[in-house]
Design brief:
Two copies of one chain form a homodimer.
Chain A (H helix, E strand, L loop, with lengths): L5 H10 L3 H13 L3 H9 L5 E2 H8 L3 H13 L3 E6 L2 E6 L3 H13 L2
Antiparallel strand pairs in A: 1-3, 2-3
Helix pairs in contact in A: 4-5
Chain A binds a DNA duplex (30 and 30 nucleotides) through helix 5.
Amino acid sequence: MTHDHDTIVKSTRDSMPNMDTMFELADFFKVFSDSTRIRIMCALFEQELSVCCIAETLSMEQSTISHQLRILRRENLVKVRKDGKQSYYSLADEHIKQIFEMGLEHISE
Amino acid sequence: MTHDHDTIVKSTRDSMPNMDTMFELADFFKVFSDSTRIRIMCALFEQELSVCCIAETLSMEQSTISHQLRILRRENLVKVRKDGKQSYYSLADEHIKQIFEMGLEHISE
DNA sequence: TGAACATATGAACAAACATTCATACGTTGA
DNA sequence: TCAACGTATGAATGTTTGTTCATATGTTCA
């Protein structure tokens, strides 16, 4: 780059959020970037479900679902309730629906 | 799974969006799941910028930025205006800011 | 108590992805 | 026209990540 961009570069940098914030933002959206996790969350929109019930609903292996639920749990998007042998998962945040709506809105354009 | 979940599985499946929709949704969020792309979009919030200007703002290689801009272009999140040697990129959609806001809201909890 | 079941998790594997390097293409101005 | 510059892109590379397999943990019930 030869021409003088110093002013623009500087003011652009100043206008941007903190580095940390932008990395966190990417990490947050990363959770929604996998179709299995999306499908799990969609399944949980109506009611809480056990792990094997989710697995059967999605026609996927129990292990796969458990691994993905772990990620959703870590990110505080779902919560667990244990009852006997089963673990019942539900959405931790009503917020999630809004985020879905927003994505759907963009897709339908 | 031994106990009878057929009813729940069936009604859950019925309540869920189309498969295609859920895959598209994941693909949409995938675009936001990378910190470089997030940073590029943040840089473009204020004004259109040339490729080399973005690269310098983020202290990253021009090639890296070009590759990521290609993805953002493919997903219709940025648009290009060519002027002489330079390509000026800008956000294609005011929508994007809303999506960012929503993510930031969740992070700050 | 032991067998059947539900869930969680580590290791291995394959696929997806971001970055870098090298280079090609197009534009400008001397 | 040729050199310098800005941008785009294919190939190579290393890393991340989702899925599978095997298995461990914990619970229920006969």
